[in-house]
Design a protein that fits this description.
The structure holds two protein chains of two kinds.
Chain A: H1 5-14, E1 22-25, H2 28-38, E2 42-46, E3 59-62, H3 65-75, E4 79-80, E5 83-84, E6 88-92, E7 98-103, E8 109-111, E9 113-121, E10 126-132, E11 147-152, H4 160-169, H5 174-193, E12 196-206, E13 212-214, E14 218-221, H6 233-242, H7 245-252, E15 256-259, E16 264-268, H8 271-283, E17 290-293, H9 300-311, E18 318-325, H10 330-343, E19 350-356, H11 359-367, E20 374-376, H12 380-392
Parallel strand pairs in A: 16-18, 18-19, 19-20
Antiparallel strand pairs in A: 1-6, 2-3, 2-6, 4-5, 7-8, 9-10, 9-12, 10-11, 12-13, 12-14, 15-17
Helix pairs in contact in A: 2-3, 4-5, 9-10, 10-11
Chain B: E1 10-14, H1 19-30, E2 34-39, E3 47-48, E4 51-54, H2 57-64, E5 68-71, H3 75-87, E6 92-95, H4 102-115, E7 120-122, E8 128-131, E9 135-138, E10 147-154, H5 157-169, E11 174-179, H6 190-199, E12 205-211, H7 216-227, E13 232-237, H8 261-270, E14 274-275, H9 281-289
Parallel strand pairs in B: 1-2, 1-5, 2-4, 5-6, 6-7, 10-11, 10-12, 12-13, 13-14
Antiparallel strand pairs in B: 3-4, 8-9, 8-11
Helix pairs in contact in B: 3-4, 5-9, 6-7, 7-8
Classes of the chains: A alpha+beta, B alpha/beta.
Chain lengths: 393, 292
């Protein structure tokens, strides 16, 4: 689960990472009230789980209530990379220190904005910490030589000595080092004890009065660790409200679903086969409406749930059911499809390809019900073509 | 010869008394796998369809000579079960459990590397391993497999089954089908399995099925270039997966532009691997590679 900035900061605060005073606002009036409470100047920040907010005009400085009103009205409802802004974070603006050693192309001192993150290096199978004096920009645009990396064995953890050496390697200014040490140790605890997949601060700043502050928070929580974190439930409520309504419905029904923007609804068993099905629909010129993995035991109930989620998507013009029967037998799956068809009125025709264990029996069951609304084809490629053709009609 | 397991492999099932564990444990035994024990501290001394249940893996090993563990327990208990098997001297552990938190996976991986370097963990979140005609540990459907010269290694379960089926349909059997799992920190990597297939005299060609996320396929491509002489046929799922979205498997996610199917496909092609456009094509490419 990706957290919005204000949620990430709330999470950081639990681990003692310093953040600025701030509050959330879902309307212009709430934004003004928060600003009045916090004191000017404030920063009005769009809350969406995507990058590029600044460039899109989703982060603005405001010195007065009128300015807050103006920016809040502009930003609420804004579309940032497909994410509609429904919530703002109003935060006390910070005075950032100027560097005495780093200058921009005009010879002006750069702001003391750093980058810090922990994530998993899947290749090394160790934790990877990254720290750079060049913060405030996307880390991908920072030259490798300016990023200090540290690999941490999950068994040993991060020691203060190693953290100090890492900070020195990153060349953080002397005035920032003690503060950075405590923030990085806290960020590491947040990453591990907090079960994050990513814990990133960009920028981490040194203020003019010598404090270290997390000005942004990018946190991805590991969904698999949900059970040991009851405190995550508030984040989930907000995530569902802000997310794709189709994905929320699927999640409620316990299905692995990812919404896409095409017209061919997809149901497959197994994550790999579901991905392969999305791919083949695209390969033959179609546009997949979703990824949906119904998992191993595909009972009639699961099939009804899957079809009802697909049916709720108004863009879907055809439904491609792609099943490979392993231990789950194809005849059971075919019965599930028939039962689902009897229980819900579908808005789009089904093209089914079922193969594997007991495929002949399964096909015989479907054959008895074959119609314009239920077409059966023996292999993935021809079924994909048929589904795409029907979606285009 | 099969890799990692054979007809002499003796399996202790951790979770045999659970619903899933009983279903798959008995299914594996019905195929001919030597399922010799189960564990459950509360049910020690009882039997599941004639298979003795022990309180601990150590006892099971002592009493039955088990040399492989099949971990099929809930996520909250999986790490402890894996470590218990390793501590009891079991050299080969298959863990099918899904939804183990990533940090726990990273800890158990590094713990095994450090304290039990000779233990091989397959998974977590994998389909298991099938050596047709000899041994089956896990979920793999045996109905679609037959003995023969092709080694299969896959992150995805269903795509491995599909590959087995495609090959069996055209009369080409398999030496071993290895599921390495869809999680971010797999105990066994593509490279481990490729090396084993390269060394296995019975395996003549290798099918490798990858997907988006991480860089295991790119690393495998490098390894193939330098160390694999047998023909490799690959398929990568997730060509059209949107970045930042998790596609069913915990490890199947394109993060920060890394781990795309396109990048993986290109790396494999550059290493001389034949890459199938869809899972169905795997069969014909293997046939070509074997010159049949």
């Amino acid at each position: 689960m990706d957290l919005m900035e204000y949620q990430g900061k709330q999470y950081f605060a639990r681990f003692g990472i310093p953040i600025s005073a701030g509050g959330i606002a879902d309307s212009v009036e709430e934004a003004v009230a928060q600003a009045e409470r916090i004191g000017y100047p404030v920063v009005v920040k769009a809350q969406v789980t995507t990058g590029g907010r600044g460039k899109a005009g989703g982060i603005k400085l405001a010195n007065t209530a009128d300015e807050v009103r103006f920016h809040a009205a502009n930003i609420l409802g804004m579309d940032i990379r497909g994410h509609i802004v429904r919530r703002l974070w109003i935060e006390r603006a910070s005075q950032i220190a100027k560097s005495s050693t780093r200058f921009d192309e005009n010879g002006q001192p750069k702001a003391e904005e750093f980058y810090a993150s922990f994530t998993l290096d899947r290749s090394a199978k160790k934790y990877l910490g990254m720290l750079s004096v060049e913060g405030g920009v996307e880390i991908e645009s920072v030259p490798d030589a300016l990023i200090a990396k540290i690999h941490i064995d999950p068994i040993d953890g991060l020691s203060e000595d190693d953290c100090r050496a890492w900070i020195a390697a990153a060349n953080l200014p002397e005035a920032a080092r003690e503060g950075a040490l405590s923030v990085l140790m806290a960020l590491y605890r947040c990453y591990t004890e907090g079960d994050c997949e990513l814990a990133e601060i960009n920028p981490l700043v040194l203020t003019a009065d010598g404090r270290i502050l997390a000005l942004d928070a990018k946190v991805t929580l590991d969904d698999a660790a949900r059970e040991r974190h009851p405190e995550w439930s508030e984040f989930e409520v907000a995530a569902v409200a802000a997310g794709d309504s189709r994905e929320a419905l699927a999640k409620e029904r316990g299905l692995q679903y990812v919404g896409l923007d095409g017209t061919v609804g997809i149901i497959a068993n197994g994550a790999g086969l579901a991905m392969a099905t999305v791919d083949i629909v695209k390969q033959v010129g179609g546009a997949p409406a979703n990824f949906l993995d119904i998992g191993g035991g595909a009972s009639a109930e699961v099939m009804v749930n899957a079809l009802s989620v697909i049916n709720a998507d108004p863009n879907v013009r055809s439904i491609f059911i792609n099943i490979f029967g392993g231990i789950t037998r194809c005849d059971e799956i075919a019965r599930g499809i028939i039962e689902a068809i009897n229980r819900i009125t579908l808005n789009a025709p089904i093209v089914a390809r079922i193969d594997g264990t007991n495929a002949a029996e399964g096909r015989a069951i479907l054959q008895a019900h074959e119609s314009e609304k239920l077409i059966m084809l023996p292999d993935m490629l021809s079924a994909a073509k048929k589904a795409v053709e029907l979606a285009g009609k | 010869m099969a890799i990692f397991v054979n007809e002499h492999t003796r399996v202790v099932v951790q979770g045999l008394t659970g619903r899933q564990g009983q279903f798959y444990g008995l299914r594996n035994r019905a195929y001919g796998t030597k399922v010799v024990a189960g564990t459950n501290p509360k049910k020690a001394g009882t039997f599941v369809e004639g298979i003795p249940i022990f309180a601990t893996v150590a006892e099971a090993v002592r009493e039955t000579g088990a040399n492989a563990a099949f971990v099929i327990v809930p996520a909250a208990a999986a790490v402890a079960s894996i470590l218990e098997a390793a501590e009891s001297g079991v050299p080969f552990i298959v863990c099918v459990t899904e939804h183990i938190p990533t940090h726990d996976q990273a800890r158990v991986y590094n713990r095994l590397k450090r304290d039990f370097p000779h233990v091989r963990l397959l998974g977590p979140n994998c389909a298991g391993i099938l050596a047709p005609g000899k041994c089956n540990i896990g979920f793999t459907p045996t109905e679609v497999a037959m003995p023969g010269p092709v080694g299969i290694v896959s992150r995805s379960g269903t795509l491995a089954y599909q590959a087995l089926y495609e090959l069996t349909q055209i009369g080409i059997g398999q030496s071993t089908c290895v599921g390495i799992g869809g999680d971010p920190v797999p105990g066994t990597s593509f490279i481990d399995v490729l090396a084993a297939f390269e060394a296995d005299p019975e395996t003549e060609a290798i099918v490798m099925i990858g997907e988006i996320g991480g860089s295991a396929e790119e690393e495998a491509a490098e390894f193939i270039k330098d160390h694999v002489t047998k023909p490799v046929i690959a398929y990568i799922a997730g060509m059209e997966a949107p970045p930042g979205k998790r596609m069913g498997h915990a490890g199947a996610i394109i993060s920060r532009g890394k781990g795309t199917a396109k990048g993986k496909t290109e790396a494999l092609k550059a290493a001389g691997v034949r890459v199938a456009m869809n899972p169905t094509e795997i069969g014909s490419l293997v046939k070509q590679a074997l010159g049949r």
